[in-house]
Specification:
- This protein is about 45% helix and about 15% strand.
- The protein is an alpha/beta fold.
- It has a single domain, classed as NAD(P)-binding Rossmann-like Domain (Rossmann fold, 3-Layer(aba) Sandwich).
- A seven-stranded parallel β-sheet has the order 3-2-1-4-5-6-7, sandwiched between helices.
- Helix 1 packs parallel to helix 2 and helix 1 crosses helix 8.
Length: about 250
């Protein structure tokens, strides 16, 4: 039996990168996956169904309250439950603080912080019905470093750590555990598209880790799988650093 047999899992930012790897590896362990993204989900759908698991793809703009409500409603209508929620979707524009427009700041907060709040508001009642739930928020080790040009992104991810810690005690009595995973800077399509120098930069960052290789999505996902399983029933409010030993916390 798989560690996630019979579970219904919602994964945001599911079209590529870490989100796509989460969907695939949850499916390999027996979960039915609801993947949400604004981008084309056909590749993720194929990976999930090739594992023999069910997949429901939902086009969802994570800055839209209507789309988020529809994502939760479609999950409930299709399966009558949601056991696992992985808040992975995020945007990460970079600019010096003086150049950060307020509308960009609000867009980052809407997708990176408001959307997890709204999804949890919609999905926690489904988890409460069954007395079991796992919420995993994908945060960022960038809040621990001094790289410039990331004010909005760092603020949103630090807020998501605080949200994780705040939500955990409020839902613990309902059998719901809430945790966060902070990945290494990972080789994903989104990261690689940011700069032609990205491979060199990733290698430089990997050299500061105890495990001195560039992280791939499959390096990060096992921590998420653990936190979304029965085995993590006594773990809540925590942030797990799946970063090759870059930071000790």
């Amino acid at each position: 039996m798989g560690t996630h047999d019979g579970r219904i899992a919602v994964v945001t930012g599911a079209a590529r990168g870490i989100g796509q790897a989460i969907c695939r590896m949850l499916a390999e362990r027996g979960a039915t996956v609801v993947g949400a993204d604004v981008a084309d989900l056909s590749e993720t759908a194929a990976l999930v169904t090739d594992s023999g698991a069910g997949f429901l793809g939902v086009t969802c703009d994570m800055s839209s309250t209507a789309d988020i409500a529809a994502l939760a409603a479609k999950t409930d209508q299709a399966f009558g439950r949601c056991d696992i929620l992985i808040n992975n979707a995020a945007i990460f524009p970079t600019a010096p603080f003086a150049d950060v427009a307020f509308d960009v700041w609000r867009q980052v907060m809407a997708i990176n912080l408001d959307a997890p709040f709204l999804l949890c508001r919609a999905i926690v009642p489904m988890m409460k019905r069954n007395g079991w739930g796992r919420i995993v928020n994908i945060v960022s080790s960038s809040v621990e470093n001094s790289r410039p040009g990331m004010t909005a992104y760092k603020a949103s991810k630090a807020g998501l750590v605080g949200f994780t810690r705040g939500l955990a005690p409020d839902v613990a009595a309902d059998g719901i555990c809430v945790n966060a995973v902070s990945p290494a800077f990972t080789r994903t399509p989104g990261n690689m598209s940011r700069s032609p120098e990205m491979t060199r930069r990733l290698a430089e960052m990997a050299d500061t880790q105890c495990i001195k290789r560039i992280a791939e999505p499959d390096d990060v996902v096992p921590a998420i799988l653990f936190l979304s399983s029965d085995d993590a029933g006594f773990v809540t409010g925590q942030t797990i650093y799946a970063d090759g030993g870059m930071y000790f916390r």
